[in-house]
Amino acid sequence: MAGLDAGYIAKQLADFKSGARKNISMEPFAQMLNDTQVKDVAAYYASLPMPERAAASGADPELLAHGERLALTGDWDRYVVSCVACHGPGSGGVGSVFPSLAGQHPEYLQTQLLAYRDGTRSNDPQDLMGAIARRMTDRDIDAVSAWLGAQPAPVRK
Ligand code: HEC
Predict the structure, then answer these.
(1) Fewer beta carbons under 10 A from the terminal one: N or C of the chain?
(2) Which atom of ligand 1 is least distant from the CA of 131?
(3) Do 106 and 149 meet the contact criterion of CB atoms below 8 Å apart?
């Protein structure tokens, strides 16, 4: 959470509260927060620096190269849109709608992509992520998660 956009964090908390995003661990905690507390806690986490990930991922170089390609260029034959097209330069996030992917934990990214693909996470506006994740193979998801998770966290002003 540290360093993500405050509006994005607040939306996720509101989604956990309303049930639009489902997670057994998060739902009861989100329920305890009123609207002011959601804003406050989101502002607090947004003000923290993003943790730096170890740049050298243990993943196989071929897998990382595939992940880099998907993130930066996409795969137009399969309509997999590049991640940077929405998540911004360096996949560092754009405003409150498109979260930073760079610097997030690879396993978290992978879990979210699998959840979008199987429909257990469906709080993305207009099914933007679901539509992409459903076109991704397991290898695509492993590759892009490993590569993005090894990218430097975005620099915030
Ligand atoms: C058409 C726009 C678009 C493209 C292209 C796109 N995304 Fe997203 N993505 C979104 C939006 C919008 C959200 C936020 C959904 C929400 O509000 O919960 C999101 C959220 C995510 C999340 C959840 C992050 C979190 O903090 O929980 C992951 C992981 C993700 N995207 C991965 C990817 C990857 C990997 C690619 C490239 C293969 C990609 N996205 C391409 C629009 C896009």
Answers:
(1) C
(2) 1
(3) yes
